[in-house]
Design goal:
The chain is mostly beta strands and 258 residues long. It has one domain: Jelly Rolls (Sandwich), CATH 2.60.120.10. 11% of the residues lie in helices and 34% in strands.
Length: 258
């Protein structure tokens, strides 16, 4: 069933609408995990978000005129240029205890290594460009503590190329490709919503994957160290100002190193 937003909601920026919806869905952990209907609602909102809505100029559309009366759109002189991303860059939009919002920007050829999302739900929207996705789900999840993680995993996406515009995707703790790797076919950007976000108690783990010729559709995954030459830069969010619930705001967020 389509969601009809009242006029006062439609007057908000798309990023504000996304934040407000996430705050409603994710800010009450006692209510349990989000329902499928709530996830579909968030996907619908994500589907409407475009590059300019998060303050990035992908060069595909004319920059908004400086005389524009649209106060919800970022001004052309405040947009990050997609051409300026020479390495993987994270644009932090918001993080609290319940969820995070941000954009990963990739130059062509850059790879985000295979990693997991422990006990997390992740919604992603490819904003521009093309990306190759490799993803897995554990057949039986390894223990969360102790020895280095390893085990049998089912292939969800085998070097699947996704091209913008496309629908927002979602992964769950045990389905949908909870472990994934991205390689940018062209310059691209991915808007992510994570719930709950990564933390010291919930870190990301990186893996190597070895196909099993005798067992098509499966691979053996083994925890590995992050490559020494891998790094993620940080960039400021230059989209429309976000009004947040200060009770949920995480002022201890540590941005990625430049």
């Amino acid at each position: 069933m389509a969601v009809a937003f009242p006029p006062h909601i439609m007057a908000l920026s798309k990023v504000q609408r996304l934040y407000d919806a996430c705050d409603v869905v994710f800010a009450s952990p006692a209510a349990g995990p989000p329902t499928l209907g709530e996830i579909r609602w968030l996907q619908k909102i994500l589907d409407g978000v475009e590059t300019a809505d998060v303050g990035i100029d992908d060069g595909e559309k004319p920059a908004p005129s400086s005389s524009s009366d649209d106060e919800l759109s970022p001004k052309s002189d405040r947009c990050l240029s997609a051409r300026a991303f020479t390495r993987i860059t994270y644009v932090h939009i918001h993080q609290c205890d319940d969820f995070s919002m941000g954009v990963f920007c990739f130059p062509a050829g850059a790879t985000l290594p295979l990693h997991d999302h422990p006990e997390m739900v992740v919604l992603s929207k490819l904003l521009y460009g093309s990306v190759r996705v490799r993803s897995y789900d554990w057949v039986a999840a390894p223990p969360r503590s102790g020895a280095r993680k390893c085990g049998l995993a089912r292939v969800v996406a085998a070097d699947e190329v996704r091209r913008a515009p496309c629908e927002a995707s979602v992964l769950f703790p045990r389905s949908g490709g909870n472990l994934h790797a991205f390689t940018a076919v062209t310059p691209c950007a991915i808007l992510d919503v994570l719930t709950p976000p990564y933390s010291e108690e919930r870190p990301s783990t990186y893996f190597s994957d070895v196909p099993i010729p005798s067992l098509p559709g499966f691979a053996f995954l083994e925890e590995t160290d992050l490559p020494e030459d891998f790094s993620v830069a940080g960039a400021p969010y230059l989209g429309p100002e976000l009004t947040v619930d200060m009770d949920d705001y995480d002022d201890d967020y540590d941005d990625y190193d430049e």
